[in-house]
Amino acid sequence: MDLRQVRSFLAVVDNGSFSAAATALFTVQSNVSTHVARLEDELGVTLLDRRTRQLTQAGSVVEKRGREIVRQLSAIADDLAAIEDRIIGDVVCGTTPSIGLAVIPPTLARATRELPEVSVSVVEAHSGTLVQQLLAGDVDLAITTGASNPELRSTPLFTEDIVAVFSTDHPFAAKTSVTLRDLAQTKLLLPLHDNPLYDHIARAFSEADVPLRTGLEVGSSALVQAMAAAHVGVALIPATAAADHNERELVVKPINDMAPRRVALTTLSVSQPTRALEAVAFIIEEIAKDAAASLPGCHTDATTSSPQASVEVPNVLSIP
After folding, report:
1. Parallel, antiparallel, or unpaired: how do β-strands 261-268 and 141-145 relate?
2. Burial class of 140 by CB neighbour count within 10 A (0 to 12, 13 to 18, 19+)
């Protein structure tokens, strides 16, 4: 087995076909086909279904190990640079949309100044997808909520309240805060079922023995707020996502009996982090905790989460 075989196999997986893999590797299709065939011969298994281009069970195992091999080989250059006290390398960072708006721009600005030889790219998705991307090796670290997996290591950053958002003329507008029983009496705008935020909300209702009414599920923070402003229902969203509610003519109220969600910086626990990864992680941790200390509805270890407190979110972010 040689590295060209592994890289060719991973390129087919990533690009969906042998021809697209050849283009990505700047070679011809016959070379890619030969490398993959030789890898299969040496391992004595079929890695790809040639009709569907889908991974076989053996292929899934080899893909996971192959990505780890490529990561470790790439880390060699970083380790050698460390001898000269240089930090170089590529880091792919994943983030949830609303938290990313508060954390990622200042992170990239600082990384550009302090880590000129480190290339940072950003992937945006909800936490469940980010966990899968971490396990697949598609991202190096991610800002996640509620990630729990023995293959992952999480460093707590802060906690964030879930808030109720609705139009300025909604009956709830006169309230200081709302309860789960209040919310059970109205139409709700909820995150998609596969979003961990949905699980967080459903668990809160279940533990309080309050029925969660079936509502509309929306996958976009901007869209769900627009729907709330249009009197479609009451949106349940993270506090950071409600930052520009005044511009949207929305009211934001805390939910008395819903626990905040935990936000953490998550990496693979089984791999040795590069110096570039450690440096970017350090910057994210500092910026995230500073941001949480100044954002209403967010709480660092030094503060006490109080859902009863009024959540008046200033226009410090823009939800695209």
Report:
1. antiparallel
2. buried
Q: Where are the domains of the chain?
A: 3-79, 88-157+262-294, 160-261
Question: For each of the chain's 320 residues, which pLDDT tens digit applies?
Answer: 788 888 888 888 888 888 888 888 888 888 888 888 888 888 899 988 877 778 988 888 888 888 888 877 777 766 776 666 788 889 999 999 889 988 999 999 999 999 999 999 999 998 989 998 998 888 999 999 877 788 899 999 999 999 999 999 999 999 999 999 999 999 999 999 988 899 999 999 999 999 998 789 998 888 999 999 999 999 999 998 887 555 567 899 999 999 999 999 999 887 778 889 999 999 999 999 998 888 888 998 644 333 333 333 333 222 33
CB atoms within 10 A of CB 291: 22
In the CATH hierarchy, which fold is given to the domain comprising 160-261?
D-Maltodextrin-Binding Protein; domain 2 (3.40.190)
Measured distance CA(101)–CA(52) in Å, rounded? 38
Beta-sheet pairing, 216-217 with 188-190? parallel
Indicate the CATH number of 88-157+262-294 among 3.90.76.10, 3.40.190.10, 3.10.100.10, 1.20.1250.20.
3.40.190.10
Do domains 3-79 and 160-261 share one topology? The answer is: no
Using alpha carbons, select from 143, 198, 188 the residue that is nearest to residue 165: 188
| Contact (CB, 8 A) for 291 and 102 | yes
What architecture does CATH give domain 3-79? Orthogonal Bundle (1.10)
Q: How much is the pTM?
A: 0.69
Neighbouring CB atoms inside 10 A of 209's CB total 8
**Alpha helices (H) in the chain, listed in sequence order:** 3-15, 18-25, 29-43, 57-83, 97-114, 127-136, 180-183, 196-207, 221-229, 275-294
